[in-house]
Design brief:
Elements (H helix, E strand, L loop, with lengths): L1 H34 L3 H6 L5 E5 L9 H18 L3 E4 L16 H7 L7 E3 L10 H7 L6 E3 L2 E2 L1 E2 L5 E5 L2 E5 L2 H9 L5 H6 L5 H12 L4 E5 L14 H13 L4 E4 L5 E6 L2 E6 L21 E5 L4 E7 L2 E7 L5 E8 L47 H34 L1
Parallel strand pairs: 1-2, 2-3, 3-6, 8-9, 9-10, 10-12
Antiparallel strand pairs: 1-14, 4-5, 7-8, 11-12, 11-13, 14-15, 15-16
């Protein structure tokens, strides 16, 4: 009996290894299918319509290695796909911002790490712990110019607009919005902290309503539809969502949470691009983490998003620090019209983190990228199952037969 038990355990362990190896292989095959970029998209897109987005990237000493990995991937994307510029969604310099336009961290934490392309920056809560006007004034320094009137670091005011290619960008100062919203109006604290007297909201409404761009994208550091642990501010939803829905905003890019995620609410994409690796990682164990009902995909890891626009479609890839393309989704420009339907790579909301070696097949990416036809689900994942799964089943059957024959032989030899 003891011999039979040992044989049973040995066979069970072999079967487990076979199954694990099979699904690992399936995961790798699936990953490769996600990582393929349709060359026709790049051929049809203009250089100025290719950009990356990230946030929470301004690394302190303990995060330099991780930050450099993400920065190197940005360099690779620029080199391989001719990326035009980067969106920096705040927390540009951990943990206490930056002191002046001559602070050494401009070189150590940004200039010498990242590719020499324009950065459109927003302010985060950690930036407010330093001198935010140093980040503003950096825009106008001579050493910051890539060419005449083409600054590499773009932050001409704590909130501003800029047109890049086909995109009309609206960069918000959500920290300032919070100060104006949560402090009682008319008090000394409100006058001291809400230094623009809430003109930003009026400015945004006016600029959005006057824009005739098909692509309107808003950037702010604070999230509205993310999984935490940082809060989705109800007051921020209340003041911004109606404006977005009324004026045809297609996407809101934020950071604050240190991972990658995208959500969908009322036909608007909310992209949490906080994988810049400037500080500690967030996980589901963090206090305050809660799966938001709008969540479509999230990944607890560093990385950035790579965006390519072709006419009225945007193709977005999530890229890990090792160059892995984790998932992709497709957006259609809203053009101020409601219910401009769009497609995404996940047909279901995920209850667990997508792992690199064993992705959830519900996150199958869009493969049909022709904007003239409806997107179709990827076929390679199904093909992988058809090819690999029978092998695992046959191996398991053979292992069971071997176990039974060994048991029968042992019994009859005794």
């Amino acid at each position: 009996k003891a011999t039979v038990s040992v044989l049973y355990c040995t066979t069970l362990c072999k079967m487990t290894k076979i199954i694990v190896a099979t699904f690992t292989l399936l995961g790798l095959m699936f990953e490769l299918s996600v990582g393929e970029i349709d060359s026709s998209i790049l051929q049809r897109s203009k250089k100025e319509n290719r950009f990356v987005s990230m946030g929470c990237w301004g690394g302190e000493k303990n995060s330099k290695r991780r930050q450099k990995e993400v920065a190197d991937q940005m360099k690779d994307l620029v080199k391989k796909y001719d990326v035009s510029y980067s969106i920096a969604a705040g927390d540009n310099f951990y943990r206490k911002g930056i002191g002046s336009v001559d602070d050494p961290r401009w070189d150590d934490g940004w200039g010498n790490l990242y590719p020499k392309i324009p950065f459109l920056a927003a302010l985060g809560n950690h930036d407010y712990r330093g001198n935010i006007w140093a980040q503003v004034n950096k825009t106008f320094t001579d050493s910051n110019q890539l060419a005449p009137n083409q600054p590499r670091w773009n932050l001409p005011y704590p909130y501003y607009e800029k047109i890049m290619g086909d995109v009309h960008w609206f960069i918000l100062d959500t920290v300032l919005l919070e100060r104006c919203e949560v402090n009682p109006r008319g008090t000394k604290l409100w006058h001291d902290r809400c230094w623009d007297k809430y003109k930003q909201l009026e400015w945004l409404s006016e600029k959005l309503s006057s824009s005739d761009s098909d692509w309107k994208i808003v950037v702010g550091h604070f999230p509205m539809f993310a999984n935490g642990p940082h809060v989705n501010h109800p007051w921020l939803r209340k003041i911004l969502c109606p404006l977005f829905e009324e004026h045809g905003v297609s996407m809101y890019i934020n950071a604050d949470n240190h991972y990658l995620q995208y959500s969908l609410h009322n036909d608007i994409w909310y992209v949490n691009a906080g994988g810049g690796a400037g500080y500690m990682k967030h996980t589901a164990k963090d206090k305050g983490f809660k799966m938001d009902e709008t969540n479509i995909w999230h990944h607890f890891g560093d990385g950035l998003f790579f965006h390519v626009i072709v006419d009225d479609r945007m193709f977005v890839h999530a890229v890990g620090p090792d160059g892995t393309f984790l998932t992709k989704f497709e957006v259609k420009a809203r053009k101020s019209a409601p219910k401009a339907i769009l497609s995404h790579s996940n047909s279901q909301k995920l209850d667990t983190v997508v792992k690199a070696t064993l992705p959830d097949v519900s996150s199958a990416p869009v493969r049909q990228l022709d904007p003239t036809t409806p997107p179709q689900p990827v076929d390679s994942a199904h093909l992988s199952i058809v090819l690999v799964l029978p092998v695992a089943v046959i191996a398991a059957i053979l292992a069971i037969k071997k176990f039974r024959f060994g048991t029968w032989s042992k019994q009859h030899s005794n």
